[in-house]
Amino acid sequence: MAGRLPRWDVAPKTLVFGAFSFDGNGAVLMQKQENRQLLSGTERRVWQGGRSLVRFARQRFELLLVPVAMAVFVGVWALIGRLGNYPPFLLPTPVQVWNRFLTVAADGTLWYHTSITLWEILGGLVLGLTTASLLGYLLAKSPLLERFLSPYIVASQSVPIVALAPLLIVWFGFGVLSKVLVCALTIFFPVLINTMIGLRTVERDLMDLMRALQASRWQVFRYLELPASLPVLLGGLKIGVTLSVIGAVVGEFAQSDRGLGFLVNLANRGLFDTPLMFVALLVLMTIALSLYGIVSVMEWLLLRWKRES
Amino acid sequence: MPSTLRAEGIRHVYRGGSGELLALDGVSLSVDEGEFVAIVGPSGCGKTTLLRILGGLLTPTEGWVHLNGQPLSSPRRQVGYVFQNVNLMPWRTVLRNVMLPLEVAGVPRGVAEERARQLLALVGMEGFEEAYPRQLSGGMAQRVAIARALVGSPGVLLLDEPFGSLDALSREQMNLELLRIWQARRVTTVMVTHDLQEAIFLADRVLVMSPRPGRIRTQVVVDLPRPRTLEVVYTEFFGALSRRVREALDASSAL
Q1: How far apart are CA B127 and CA B219, in angstroms?
Q2: What's the rounded Cα separation, in Å, for the pair A220 and A217?
Q3: For A111, phi and psi rounded to 5 degrees?
Q4: Contact residues for A38 (Cβ-Cβ < 8 A; gap 6+)
Q5: Which residue of B has its CA nearest to A220?
Q6: Whose CA is closest to B208, among B180, B243, B236?
Q7: Chain A contact set for B57 (CB, 8 A)
Q8: Count H helices, E strands: chain A?
Q9: d(CA A136, CA A142)
Q10: Min CA distance, B69 vs chain A (Å)?
Q11: Cβ–Cβ gap B90/A209 under 8 Å
């Protein structure tokens, strides 16, 4: 081993590190570099290869857990169905649900209702997110406005949306618009609160820095407020997109003649077609999971700095 | 281009819920082109308040500040400010943190990057361009903050206890580095600190402040030759200067 020690000469970078490694992290950094320098080229490659293999396997293992969990769920469901031998309107088996899915998927019914609900969700998200984040920004910036409006906003949250939905349908008709509004109202509050909290977490000293740089209002927003509050904003978005699915369904439950919520209602109360109801519910879950997944990917892409350490 | 900085009759009162607090009273000072002035004083004497006023971040209740003979009432890009707590943006890489002042000033991206790389080389942070602030040690982060303050080629550099959170060894190291950078740039510099040795080692003049309300009690001219090395600290002359500053500080505290 002694022969390998004076490898400083082939690693000029180590010396650069050495130049200012007086404080904690610097020293650690240097040590890591040193250790790596002690390995020969092949050894290092093997070491790094082994490490990335382990990491890869670990990630794969975690990904494997998703289908495994699903298989367990479906298995337990099938087992309960088999043991109890319930009639399909009480508890359909996975196979019955799957067959029902194939028929409604083939004749276009499922896609028709799904597309309606997706439009309502999309409209609700666009409307809810814009109004909530705009108002959230104003409230975060103006304590006066916050004091003036917050009692109304909080009070409005004590009114169940389920009670409000029929009223909105009376006002705005029972087409897509009233559902978009119910959906927007559902996501409004969590997004509003998260926007306010996010903007308030901006450090005062960084605000001073932006002032010292003579940044404009827009630049302060773009370079400081938006990136600083992004972690909290994305947290609000995660809650928002999940609630948006509920919002659309609540709207459809109140009164409608199309959409997945309508389909659930119809299957459940009109047709006693429980397999169809399960199909609609599973599609709703898939929508919620996909929306959540999209936000998670956004988080992963936008918050790279949080992962590096 | 180095600038001159003058302040006259600065008085500042903080108004809060619990009443008024006189932070500064009748502070006047003048810093020449390319001069390094250190301000020392007991904690809570209004050093940071004074620096914020000099930087245009805070409007004094009374008095005025002139930068190159022009009244200064709001922040200017000719003034580079180094904050007490580093104050880097955690979501930006080292390089992009240093580019920020130029981006805000509307300098084209390519030019800004070029300039930022030069500054990072000057402060000895080459090779860390793509690191994030939380991956850096205190001393390294403060180097980046200094690079950021200098990237817009300001005429004045204001430093608010930049090395206050570092351990003694890193602090010495950073003092040397700061001297080297200052010598390379010859920018008019005002530094606030509570470390007497640091003040004498770096500055041409040391201003001693009294406890609240802050006033400038006396000034000690540091006629140590430049360039200075760490050994100068052990000379008899340095000792004598330290004693004078120390006595001035004690005398003002006793009042």
Answers
A1: 41
A2: 5
A3: -65, -35
A4: A1, A4, A5, A7
A5: B104
A6: B243
A7: 208, 211-212
A8: 14, 0
A9: 10
A10: 20
A11: no
Tokens standing for B72?
């200064």
- Shortest Cα–Cα distance, A284 to chain B (Å): 35
Give the integer Cα–Cα distance in Å for A217 and B104: 11
Q: Does A25 lie at the interface with B, CB-CB under 8 angstroms?
A: yes
Q: Does A228 touch chain B (CB under 8 A)?
A: yes
Q: Residue A209: name the closest of A230, A223, A197, A195 by CA.
A: A223
Q: What is the pTM of this model?
A: 0.77
Tell me which residue in B127, B135, B167 faces A16 most closely, judged by beta carbons. Answer: B127
Please state the φ and ψ torsions of residue A99, each to the nearest 5 degrees: -65, -40
B168/A contact by beta carbon, under 8 A: no
Distance from the Cα of residue A39 to its chain's centroid: 43
Q: By CB neighbour count within 10 A (0-12 exposed, 13-18 middle, 19+ buried), where does B139 fall?
A: buried
CA distance A270 to chain B (A): 54
**Tokens encoding A161:** 């949306």
Using alpha carbons, select from A270, A264, A267 the residue that is nearest to residue A249. Answer: A264
From first CA to last CA, the distance across chain A in angstroms is 31
The answer to whether B147 and B92 are in contact (CB under 8 A) is no
User: Residues near A162 by Cβ (< 8 Å), separated by ≥ 6?
Assistant: A250, A253, A254
Please tell me whether residue A110 adopts helix, strand or coil conformation: helix
What is the β-pairing status of strands B216-221 and B205-209?
Answer: antiparallel
CB neighbour class for B3 (10 Å; exposed up to 12, middle 13-18, buried from 19):
buried
pLDDT tens, position by position, for chain B (255 residues)?
A: 678 899 999 999 998 878 888 889 889 999 999 899 999 988 888 889 999 999 889 999 999 999 988 888 888 888 999 998 889 999 999 999 999 999 999 999 999 999 999 999 988 899 999 999 999 988 899 999 999 999 988 889 999 999 888 888 888 888 998 998 888 888 999 999 988 999 999 999 999 998 888 888 889 899 888 888 888 888 889 999 999 988 888 887 765
Handedness of CA B83, B32, B98, B173 (dihedral sign): negative
Spell out the domains of chain A, with CATH numbers in brackets. Answer: 2-64 (no CATH), 99-307 (1.10.3720.10)
